[in-house]
Design goal:
Layout lengths: L1 H13 L4 H8 L3 H9 L8 H14 L4 H14 L2 H4 L18 H68 L3 E6 L3 E7 L5 E7 L4 E5 L4 E5 L5 E5 L2 E5 L6 E5 L3
Antiparallel strand pairs: 1-4, 1-6, 2-3, 2-5, 5-8, 6-7
Helix pairs in contact: 1-3
């Protein structure tokens, strides 16, 4: 058996492999490999397992598995009855259990595991990225929702100003005539010559007219009237006698 063990060890060392390398590749424990290389097959395991382990190791080292098993059977037959155990040692190779592990498969196993690990890592990364994308979208949507009220509030002053401007522009300019004594007055539109007022203003009377276009004011005694345009005094009794005034909206 020592010759068989030495053959296994020599083949391993020729490949420059350590026991750890073989154990990782074949999934066999180091102490099992050590026993096989010492030719010590009397460790406490059923013979069917010992034969299976030897098949795996022989296939890994590229031996002819049938030749190795015949050598093992011969060595076991030459042992004393006490050492051979209860199991008959003259067993044909064909009667042995099928090879447990194909070495080519065992070599590929680490690569397959690495590939599977890589796939899991990629899937996990994609899942994390998807979650982050959802969080970013939710944050952006939340930010836009929060900004909408402020935008509405900011637009309100502008709207108020626009409304105020519209009100000012819609509100017509007024011409106000105030009499400080009795006098006759005629007011007409310059362009159309349309008379919009004619008559006597008594002392203290106040008349106002929409100043949508230029008006002509003719007064019998200019010293008895005051003219205001939209609150601004434009004439105040500075003349006497008959006078005429063209008053434009601005």
């Amino acid at each position: 058996m020592k010759n068989l063990g030495a053959k296994l060890k020599a083949a391993r060392e020729a490949k420059e492999l350590s026991l750890r390398d073989v154990a990782d590749a074949t999934r066999l424990r180091i102490h099992v490999l050590e026993n096989m290389e010492k030719g010590a097959f009397d460790y406490d395991l059923p013979d069917i397992y010992k034969r299976g382990f030897l098949r795996i190791y022989a296939a890994f080292l590229k031996f002819n598995v049938d030749d190795i098993m015949r050598e093992y059977n011969t060595a076991m037959a030459m042992r004393s009855p006490d050492d051979s155990g209860k199991r008959p040692v003259m067993v044909a190779v064909e009667d042995e259990i099928p090879q447990i592990t194909n070495f080519e498969d065992s070599q590929d196993a680490p690569s397959d595991e690495i590939d599977m690990t890589s796939k899991y890592i990629k899937l996990g990364g994609a899942f994390v990225l998807a979650i982050l994308a959802i969080i970013v979208v939710v944050m952006i949507a939340s930010s836009l929702t929060k900004d909408e009220p402020s935008n509405k509030e900011e637009s309100q002053p502008t709207t108020a100003v626009e409304n105020s401007i519209n009100e000012v522009s819609v509100k017509p300019v007024k011409l106000v005539v105030t009499a400080s004594g009795d006098t006759y007055i005629t007011i007409s539109k310059v362009d159309s010559k349309e008379v919009i007022f004619t008559g006597t203003l008594k002392n203290g009377m106040v008349k106002d007219f929409a100043l949508e276009e230029t008006l002509f004011v003719r007064v019998a005694d200019a010293s008895k009237i005051k003219l205001e345009r939209d609150g601004d005094v434009i004439y105040d009794k500075s003349r006497t006698g008959v006078c005429g005034f063209n008053v434009s909206p601005r």
